[in-house]
């Protein structure tokens, strides 16, 4: 179904319409995702969930502009910030230096970069850490730097590809909470990829379920979770969470059987 094009309606931040992405040459093409349509409104927090190989990363890279669609239309509001599973920091730069590099690429004048980098690091819980070398930082701290770097372009859209998958459980919970409140506070649109159904329910305002062979969206589950003041651990203990977690499991199972 084509996206709505009411003249009066606010434009979505991300619109994919009948998109297919293939890898490899003409001789042995791999269809990574086929005929995918989705629309993410401004300020929405949408989670893509699905098993390994179903095309989650491909869709994110497409939205980021790193891949091209073989078919279909891609419409994305810029700028976007991207956070990957691995932080991919420059090891020869400090935490602040990594963020400053992104600021430079964004056109921020040299004289403003250090202060702005410190401010961004503070926003992700790394106040006073700008001078740290990357090897002095824990995995969670490195991922915080990567988030600060992504925020350097003041993105309208944040794209996150399993950003917490490599972190220990406690660090993951903290970062989940922080990304959620950051998104709420700034109104940033988030497209978040995970293979964890639990993480999808905890974070998303809407979850899109994907299946492989070829990659496609097979179900959509709205997450009307009252987050209130609860932290992630508290949220997980609520009846609302259990119900939605169950709904998502059913949708995933039905989709797999379809
Ligand atoms: P996910 O992130 O859900 O694990 P991917 O988007 O990484 O899935 O991959 C989707 C499909 O595309 C898989 O079958 C994968 O093997 C294939 N694929 C991904 N990247 C490439 C690539 N660079 N070249 C060839 N095939 C690829
Ligand atoms: Mg992936």
List the helices and strands and how they pair.
Layout: E1 14-23, E2 30-40, E3 45-49, H1 56-64, E4 71-76, E5 80-83, H2 95-105, H3 110-123, H4 139-151, E6 157-161, H5 169-186, E7 189-194, H6 197-203, E8 206-211, E9 216-222, H7 232-236, H8 239-257
Parallel strand pairs: 3-7, 3-8, 5-6, 6-7
Antiparallel strand pairs: 1-2, 1-4, 8-9
Magnesium ion (MG) binds at residues 56-57, 161.
Question: What this model shows, in words?
Answer:
- The structure is a single chain.
- The chain has 258 residues and is α/β, with parallel strands linked by helices.
- It folds into 2 domains: 1-78 and 156-258, P-loop containing nucleotide triphosphate hydrolases (Rossmann fold, 3-Layer(aba) Sandwich); 89-154, no CATH class.
- 37% of the residues lie in helices and 23% in strands.
- The protein is built from 8 helices and 9 strands.
- The strands form 2 sheets. A 6-stranded mixed beta sheet has the order 5-6-7-3-8-9, with helices on both faces. It has a 3-stranded antiparallel beta sheet with strand order 2-1-4.
- Strand 1 (14-23) and strand 2 (30-40) form a beta hairpin.
- Helix 2 (95-105) packs across helix 3.
- The chain starts with 13 loop residues before the first strand and ends with a helix.
- Adenosine-5'-diphosphate binds at residues 23-24, 30, 32, 50, 52-58, 215.
- The site of adenosine-5'-diphosphate has 13 residues, from strand 2 and helix 1.
């Amino acid at each position: 179904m084509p996206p709505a094009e009411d003249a009066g309606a606010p434009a979505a931040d991300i619109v994919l319409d009948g998109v297919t992405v293939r890898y490899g040459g003409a001789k042995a093409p791999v269809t990574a995702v086929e005929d995918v349509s989705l629309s993410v409104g401004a300020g929405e927090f949408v989670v893509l969930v699905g098993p390994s190989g179903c095309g989650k990363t491909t869709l994110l890279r497409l939205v980021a502009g790193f891949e091209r669609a073989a078919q279909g239309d891609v419409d994305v509001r810029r700028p976007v910030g991207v956070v990957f599973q691995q932080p991919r920091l420059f090891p020869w730069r400090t935490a602040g230096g990594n963020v400053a590099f992104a600021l430079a690429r964004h056109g921020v004048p040299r004289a403003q970069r250090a202060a702005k980098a410190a401010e961004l690091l503070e926003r992700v819980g790394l106040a006073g850490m700008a001078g740290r070398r990357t090897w002095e930082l824990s995995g969670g701290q490195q991922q915080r730097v990567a988030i600060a770097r992504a925020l350097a372009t003041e993105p309208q859209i944040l794209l996150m590809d399993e950003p917490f998958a490599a972190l220990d459980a406690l660090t993951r919970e903290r970062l989940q909470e922080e990304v959620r409140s950051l998104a709420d506070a700034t109104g940033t649109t988030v497209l978040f990829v995970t293979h964890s159904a639990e993480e999808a329910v905890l974070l998303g305002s809407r979850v899109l379920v994907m299946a492989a062979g070829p990659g496609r969206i097979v179900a959509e589950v709205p997450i009307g979770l009252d987050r209130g003041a609860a932290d992630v651990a508290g949220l997980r203990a609520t009846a609302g969470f259990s119900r939605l977690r169950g709904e998502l499991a059913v949708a995933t199972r039905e989709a797999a059987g379809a």
